[in-house]
Amino acid sequence: MTTTTTSGAGRVEARRAAVRAGLTRGWLETKYSFMEAGDVIWYLAFPVIYAVVLLFMRGSTVPGTGFALGAMVLPSLVGMSIALGGLTGAASTIAVDREDGTLLRAKATPNGMIGYLVGKILMFALTTAVSLLALVIPAFTVAGDLRLDLRTAVLLIMIFVLGMVATVPISVALGSLFTSSAQTGLLFLISMLLIIPSGIFYPITALPGWLQVVGQAFPYYWLGLGARSAMLPDSLAAAEIGGSWRTLEMIGVLGLWAVVGMVLAPIVLRRMARRESGSTVAAARERFMTKGY
């Protein structure tokens, strides 16, 4: 009994150590990423474009109401930015980490895949947070009528954290299926298609019933709904499915995505890493260098 208890405690401590190592790795990767001009431009490009679009909406109102159009659109953009930051960002790094031997080293480390996954969640949470700040800070100056109180702050933080945990592991798992970083553009394209029935740019209640079902199956709709529930007056919930913000359902669906991702991603990563060896990494690196020339 004592041996079993000790062994169990050892496994728990090993996982804690892997989580701590992942947090450290995630912070370092974020710091290095912000030293790359290309990465910084990518993080800021879309928020700046969104902010400019909202600027042109200044003075416009939702048809039939006196509610500012920019205030109506901004929460949906926040939800979409969280989803895109988590779902499309991590997948693009998997092929690179495979080619430079990062995944091979993680495989050789006890609970290395857990640490790797934690690092990715932290990195893309931090970079997405910067993108959101670049969008929200200027947008608040042109999008009036928004709810800004303690409830808003608590809900947005909860939605952001839950959104990152729900999307980054899924992105990592999907990225593990690609054989090269160029293929991740397909994931971005699919994400753009999924935004159509998500209610981000058009009320989901105005879509056909089958498209409403499709939209509700993915995080985009729920993250957009959560951001709207945090930032918009309760009276606007009438435009949503069921005439309410469905906060509990939102937490439940995103929580389910998070559980599936956290269980699935390490399994997929380990299976992919089993096919890797020093020779395959060297060959991949050679192909990359050849293309570079």
TrEMBL record:
One GO BP annotation is: response to antibiotic
Where does it localize? Answer: Membrane
Kindly provide the name given to this protein in its UniProt entry.
Transport permease protein
Q: Which residues form the signal peptide?
A: none
- Listed InterPro entries: ABC2_TM, ABC2_TM_bact-type, ABC_2_transport, Nod_factor_ABC_transporter
Entry coiled-coil feature ranges: none
Lipid bilayer topology: Multi-pass membrane protein
Keyword tags: Antibiotic resistance, Membrane, Transmembrane, Transmembrane helix
- A cellular component term (GO) from this record? ATP-binding cassette (ABC) transporter complex
Q: What are the TM regions of this chain, as residue ranges? A: 40-57, 77-96, 117-141, 153-174, 186-204, 250-269
Entries under Pfam families matching the protein: ABC2_membrane_3
Residues covered by the ABC transmembrane type-2 domain: 38-272
Q: Which GO terms describe its molecular function?
A: ABC-type transporter activity
